[in-house]
Structures are given as C-alpha cells and as structure tokens.
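#onboarding

Welcome to the new folks! Below is a worked example of what a typical request in this channel looks like: someone posts a single protein sequence, and someone else replies with the predicted structure as tokens. Don't worry about understanding the tokens yet, we'll cover that in week two.

Example request:
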Amino acid sequence: MAGIALPLLGIVASLVVGMDRDDASPTVAAPPSSSASSDSVDPASSEEPEPTATTTTPASDDKSAAPPLDPPDSPLPSGSGGSVSKVDLAPPQGHGPARESSWGLVPAPCTNYEQQLIDLDTGLSRVEKEDNGRIEEPGGAELHYWPDSCTGGGDYRLRGVPNTRVGLLRADDPHTAEQCRKVSNTGLPPLNLNDSETTEQAGFVIGAAICSVTTEGAVAMATIDHINEGGFAGENTASGTLYVWPKVS
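Example response:
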C-alpha cells in the first residue's frame, strides 16, 4: 500500500504545482489589462482640455457683446439743418411752414467794381456795378455788400438795403420766427466785417442771425454759421442756413 501511495502523492503534487503555474502566469507575464484601466480612469480627465470659445475667442466676436462705438468723426444728428443755434421751426401766425436753403456773402475784388445784393426770400445773390454804395435796382434784395472805397483791405461793408426791414438776432436770443420778425424792425447799419471788435459789439458773430420781413412778406432768418476771416481778396466772408416762413395769402 505504501508503494502505491507514493506514486499517487507525486501525481497529486505535480497537478497542484501545474495549477499554481497556470494561475500565476497571467499575473506575472501578461501586460496590464487596458480594460481594467478604462474601468478605473476617465479618459476625458487624462487628456489635455481642448480650447473653447470662452477661453480663446476675443470679446469683440461675442454676439452678445455691446456694439462698438461710432468713430470720433461720425456725423452727429442735427435738428436744425446744420445751424449753430437751434432754430424753432414753428411758423408765426399768418405764415406757412419754413423753407430751408443757404445764403452767403462773397465779395468780388474791389478792382472789379462790383457790389453784391442778397435776396432773403431765396438766398440768391447777384452783383451789379458798384456806384459809391448806391443801388441801381434792388430787385427784391434785402442785404447789400459793397466796397466803401477800394483803397485797401477791409473796404467792404454790409447793411440792409434801404427801405427794407432787416435786423440782427443775437446769438443768445430765442431763434424763433416770431422773435425774428420783431428784431427785423431794428435795422442793420453798415458793418465792416473785417473789424472784429465792431462786429462783436454789434452781435454779428457765429450763432447769431440776420432777420428780415422780406419784400414778399415772408419772415426770413439767415443764421450765421461760418465767418471766414480774409477768405476772399482779403475780405471776410460769412454764410449759413436760411429759413423762410412764407406769408400765407
């Protein structure tokens, strides 16, 4: 019996050893299981984060961002046709809605012996031969710009045409048709536009206006928006917006 038992024990021992070798081989020789690592580690957490719009996109590309400001030279809206002083366009009693145009003073050189006449019903001007300040035919004009002597710079003078209603609306006065009609009775004596001290005292400055009840019965307001010193042949020029409230028949 002992002889039989010894071979049986050897067989059992070899089977146990073989089983131990089979069990141990996967853990010693096999590489780490990829499925095991995927079960324990989140792939997203092990990768570099991709750039997103919130971290790399400039703020100006954001559709919800505030729109950019207008450039500094963008024109600003104007409620008075570009006039320096705001004009109340309400018509006075007996007159229709205002018409808007332009007016200006541009003298000819004295050597041309011309004088300029401006019609404040339309803003149109014409020239005629100068005759020491005398006007041959006013033709409905309200302003007269003429050379006084043609002996040098600053010879031109501006005045209201005789027998017309023309006055000067100061820059700080209300720019209304009714106020304009009132000051048209004050007159516009000869002004040397090259004498800044005299014109400032008279109120002929940017922001003021020449007012008239015209030969056609309209109320006209010629705003002084620009004064160009020595702008033409050494003489100052002036220009602006003309508002005319026509008389309702």
